[in-house]
Write a structure and sequence with these properties.
The chain folds into three domains: 132 residues, 3-Layer(aba) Sandwich (Rossmann fold), CATH 3.40.50; 82 residues; 167 residues, Rossmann fold (3-Layer(aba) Sandwich). It is 50% helix and 16% strand. It contains 15 helices and eleven strands. The longest helix has 43 residues.
Length: 397
């Protein structure tokens, strides 16, 4: 098994690619944030581009949460280590580095098994270092950005589902605190108590979400039956510019930030279409991300319901993103899981103000099969063309 790591200078890779000459300034700001080590296990056949893309995205999540990546560790393995996910030698190396550099978080770019989390934490518990997997990080970001009761309930549900299997670790902690194997029965009793508590809370959260979903369905029915509104859902990979497009089309006052998962709640706005002399409703909701676990998709289904029940989907793509091809694929896969694969779509390539004419023509040719529309939501470029396309699609329904 061959191990490798990216050098320290890669720590600002994401910032440098996205903000160019602002990298040094960003670096100085990040110095005041908690230090983070990123860890990834990749198959031996994984390309350098894929490896870099995986860690770039994880670093973007860390930046969104409020952390400072000081180094990335990569290990090439066919399968992760059953006990510690990372091989023991690599884990020891990471732990020593974390101790020497006052690291606050070790974040693993995958979903860890409870025993793996427990075994890694045992190595760093005296240092005050926290061990998170990718889902822990995403849930922390969600929690920071949630504003509505619906979003908070969804995050709690996802957290409970993620916490459930980790009762194993809690039970072992109770056993250790009680004196070891001799108190195993007590530990098992506490595990059962925690299981029942989590199950009761999960049931209550689901019941609350069902009330929210029923109210939303009633609102959708009124909009469709009584007002005749057709609906257009704005979807895309997180940070593609969905909220910016929502503002540009509807003047709706929504939060627009250059961070991942800036939008968690569904936002609705009205767009008048002079070509058909009607208004439609636009919805903007949570962005998608690669390897988004099924339990997170399930937890956010009530938010994503506007997409599921929409008449038309605008798939927004960052035209300046070198990784757009696989991000388009990720969004299409999530839409498929939501049962939206067959819906009418318009592929909207955003941020063309950052492209030269040659690059734009290359993209037009490369994605010709998608019949792309090129716009800049931030600079109001080609929005009339997009509105006309929306009117034409809705006029056929």
């Amino acid at each position: 098994m061959q191990g490798s790591e990216e050098p320290l200078q890669e720590a600002y890779g994401t910032v440098r690619r996205r903000r160019g000459d602002e990298a040094d300034t960003a670096g100085r700001v990040l110095q005041g944030l908690p230090k983070v080590i990123l860890v990834d296990i990749i198959a031996p056949q994984t390309s350098p581009e894929e490896s870099l893309a995986r860690l770039n995205e994880l670093e973007s999540l860390v930046l969104t949460y409020g952390g400072f990546v000081i180094i990335r560790k990569i290990q090439r393995r066919q399968t992760p280590d059953y006990q510690t996910y990372i091989g023991k030698g690599k884990l020891q190396e990471i732990v020593e580095y974390a101790r020497e550099n006052d690291v606050k978080y070790i974040i693993i770019n995958n979903l860890l098994k409870p025993q793996q989390t427990y075994n890694i934490e045992r190595q760093v518990e005296t240092e005050g270092i926290e061990v998170w997997d990718k889902i822990d990080l995403i849930l922390k970001i969600f929690d920071k950005h949630a504003t509505s009761r619906e979003a908070k309930l969804q995050i709690e549900l996802a957290g409970l589902k993620h916490l459930g299997p980790r009762i194993f670790k809690m039970g072992l902690d109770l056993m250790r605190q009680g004196g070891g194997i001799g108190t195993r029965g007590k530990g098992e009793t506490n595990i059962e108590v925690m299981k029942r508590h989590i199950a009761r809370r999960e049931l209550k959260v689901r019941q609350e979400l069902k009330k929210v979903e029923a109210a939303q369905q009633s609102q959708r029915n009124r909009r469709k039956v009584h007002h005749g509104f057709k609906t257009v859902a704005i979807v895309g990979y997180t940070n593609a510019g969905k909220s910016c497009l929502m503002v540009a089309l509807t003047r709706k006052n929504v939060k627009v930030e250059d961070v991942l998962f800036a939008t968690l709640d569904t936002r609705l706005g009205k767009l008048y279409l002079p070509e058909i002399q009607k208004s439609c409703l636009m919805s903007d909701t949570i962005g998608f991300i690669r390897d988004l676990p099924p339990e997170l998709i399930e937890a956010f289904k009530s938010t994503l319901a506007e997409t599921i029940h929409s008449d038309l989907i605008l798939h927004v793509i960052d035209a300046d993103d070198l990784e757009m091809e696989w991000k388009i694929k990720v969004v299409e896969e999530v839409l498929g899981k939501l049962g939206c694969a067959g819906k009418k779509k318009i592929y909207v390539f955003n941020k063309i103000d950052r492209l030269g004419e040659t690059r734009r023509k290359e993209l037009e040719q490369q994605f010709k099969i998608l019949q792309p529309l090129f716009i800049s939501a931030a600079h109001q470029m080609n929005l009339p063309v997009l509105k006309q396309a929306i009117a034409e699609r809705l006029g056929r329904i």
